[in-house]
Amino acid sequence: KCSPQEILDNDCVHPGLPGGTVFDLLEVLICGFIGGKIVDRIGLPALFGQLLAGFLLKNVIPDQLDGLSAGLNSMLRSVALAIIMLRAGLGLDLAILRKSSVGAMILATCPCIGEAVTIAILSHIIFPAMSWPFCFMLGFCIADVSPAVTTPILLDLNIQKRGTKKGIPTILLAAGSVNSVIAIVFYKITEEFAWEGSISPENIVQIVAVKFFLQVFGIGGGAGWVMGKVCRFCWQLTDDKNARFAILRSEEHT
Fold this sequence. Notes:
- The chain has 254 residues and is mostly helical.
- It has eleven helices and no strands.
């Protein structure tokens, strides 16, 4: 709601008009859909066209997307990541995944770290003033984008039953999900080094041992196991699709 003073000063914009939140959201969705379709025609991932459309709206075309605040942007990114991870998790075949867990872990770690290191080296060469921690932050930030491209493709292959006998879509979906977790964790670790200003053995031990192993594998793994058991118990109580979707969403937010 707008105050009387904002209405008099013309600072109040209706959400459905240009400059409003609803209008800008619809503008991003429609332009991203069109951009994705255009890029898909030339054989590139539709996500590239969507990203390009968002870049043009925000940085090239003046007075666009002013109704989307930084907080709303952050919330929408978190929701998008949660949806991608949720879709990937629901598309897994646990029986095949247990047989190929080692291969999935190798595919999850090696490409992610290799991509991040390559980007970090290239960014340091192109931008010599950028410190190594910031270069690795950029590398792991870009490495985390990969599942956004691969997950929809692998889910489509799973639906078409292509490679399902060998469990290829399941292995790659699991690897992509773990890839995102590894990229996010290492991004936070390098962020700590970037703002510390100096890298000492004490800082390395504290950040890697406490923030990586204890928080991620200890607290995160334990909490995930407990919430998984609770979600499974609640899931078995009902056959209603809407109720099950609500259970997944509540567990995700928790």
